[in-house]
Amino acid sequence: MTTTLLNNRYQVIEVLGAGGFGETFLAEDTHMPSRRRCAIKQLKPIAANDPQTYKLIRQRFEREAATLENLGKSSDQIPELYAYFPEKGQFYLVQEWIHGQTLTQFVADKGLLNETTVREILLPLLSVLDYVHSKGIIHRDIKPDNIILRFSDDKPILIDFGA
């Protein structure tokens, strides 16, 4: 198996997910003594050969990075942005890796949830949504796949602010 090193720094460990616009990887930061783990979101521009479309995609990518940088610093329920960079015509966001499981996985494992469990998950999510909205930002893609229940404290973490 070939090892992938992104930005001459991030060692890809595994693919966490894939969609129409790119992939998300679990990686280690080889420039940090702890080799801290991070999530790297890759955005593959569909029409990279069209300069206007590429420019628009790059602007949206930079806007998502700026949004994450702003939000992640002030909320422990939004992953912190560590870096972002373009490489070989693709764009990458490097974020805090949240050790947990998506709400989709949680429901698949547990089956139907009782009202108490649903409240324990959703009520803490309301405060992070209130915070995001207070910054004039709308998530636009809230779904079970974009909510990670962090193993350390069971808090719901809102991910994927989508470019």
Structural features, described:
The chain is of the alpha+beta class and 163 residues long. Helix content is 32%, strand content 31%. The protein has 3 helices and 9 strands, in the order ββββαβββααββ. The protein has helices at residues 51-74, 103-110, 115-134; strands spanning 5-6, 10-19, 22-29, 37-43, 81-87, 90-96, 100-102, 147-150, 156-158. The strands form 2 sheets. A 6-stranded antiparallel sheet has the order 1-2-3-4-6-5, covered by helices on one side. The longest helix is centred in the middle third of the chain and has 24 residues, at 51-74. The chain is globular and about 50 Å long. The mean pLDDT is 90.
Map the helices and strands.
Blueprint lengths: L4 E2 L3 E10 L2 E8 L7 E7 L7 H24 L6 E7 L2 E7 L3 E3 H8 L4 H20 L12 E4 L5 E3 L5
Oligomer: single chain
| Count of DSSP H/I helices | 3
* Physical arrangement of strands within the biggest beta sheet: 1-2-3-4-6-5
- Strand content is 25-35%
Quickly give the structural class.
Answer: alpha+beta
Order of helices and strands: EEEEHEEEHHEE
Runs in which pLDDT lies below 50 for 5 or more consecutive residues are none
State the shape. globular
Mean pLDDT: 90
The whole-angstrom Rg is 17 Å
What is the CA-CA span between the terminal residues? Answer: 31 Å
Query: Which bin fits the share of residues in helices?
Result: 25-40%
Structure, briefly:
This protein has three helices and nine strands. The protein is α+β, with helices and mostly antiparallel strands and 163 residues long.
